[in-house]
Q: What sequence folds into this?
C-alpha cells in the first residue's frame, strides 16, 4: 500500500513542478537552492556558485524590462543607491519591470551580514548572490565596458539595453533611465 501512495505523491509533485515552470523552459534563473533563510522573517537569498548559473538573467527575450544591479553590503555607494532601486517598485507597480539585486557579498557573510541587511532595509527586490570569485572570467560577459567596480546597473528588454557604470546619485536619473523602456 505504501508504494502506490508514494507514487501518487511523486506524481503530484512532478505535476506541480511542471505547472510552476520548474524543469521546463528557463526564464529568470531561480533554480539554484535558497541556501540561507532567516527563520523569523523568511528572508532568503538564492546563491549561484558559477556565473554560468546566473547568466540566463541577462538573456531574457520577453515583454519584461529587467533592472539588474551588482552590489554588496560593504560597498557604500551601492548601499546609498538601493533606496532608489527599491522606489522603482512603487513607481512602476503594474508594469512589467523585474528588479534583481546581484550581491557580491562574501560567502561567509551571507547569514551574518547580507540577510540581516535585507531584513533591516526591508528590500523587496529579488536578491541573488554570485559566489563566483573569478571576476575576470565573467565581467566582460555581463558587459564589455564594465571595468569591475560596483555598483553597476544593467537595464534591458528584448529591444534595448542600458549600462550604468557609476553609482546613481539621484532617483530621477534612475527613474528616467527605466521610464525610457516603457
A:
Amino acid at each position: 500500500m505504501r508504494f502506490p501512495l508514494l507514487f501518487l505523491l511523486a506524481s503530484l509533485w512532478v505535476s506541480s513542478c511542471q505547472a510552476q515552470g520548474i524543469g521546463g523552459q528557463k526564464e529568470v534563473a531561480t533554480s539554484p537552492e535558497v541556501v540561507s533563510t532567516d527563520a523569523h522573517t523568511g528572508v532568503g537569498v538564492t546563491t549561484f556558485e558559477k556565473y554560468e548559473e546566473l547568466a540566463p538573467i541577462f538573456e531574457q527575450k520577453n515583454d519584461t524590462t529587467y533592472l539588474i544591479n551588482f552590489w554588496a553590503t560593504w560597498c557604500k555607494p551601492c548601499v546609498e543607491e538601493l533606496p532608489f532601486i527599491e522606489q522603482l517598485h512603487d513607481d512602476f507597480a503594474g508594469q512589467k519591470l523585474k528588479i534583481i539585486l546581484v550581491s557580491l557579498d562574501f560567502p561567509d557573510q551571507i547569514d551574518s551580514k547580507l540577510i540581516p541587511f535585507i531584513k533591516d532595509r526591508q528590500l523587496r527586490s529579488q536578491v541573488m548572490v554570485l559566489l563566483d570569485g573569478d571576476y575576470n572570467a565573467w565581467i566582460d560577459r555581463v558587459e564589455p565596458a564594465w571595468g569591475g567596480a560596483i555598483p553597476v546597473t544593467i537595464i534591458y528588454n528584448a529591444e534595448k539595453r542600458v549600462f550604468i557604470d557609476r553609482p546613481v546619485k539621484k532617483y530621477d536619473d534612475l527613474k528616467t533611465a527605466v521610464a525610457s523602456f516603457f
Remarks:
- The mean pLDDT is 82.
- The chain has one domain: 24-179.
- Strands lie at 34-37, 44-48, 65-71, 97-103, 126-130, 152-156, 161-164.
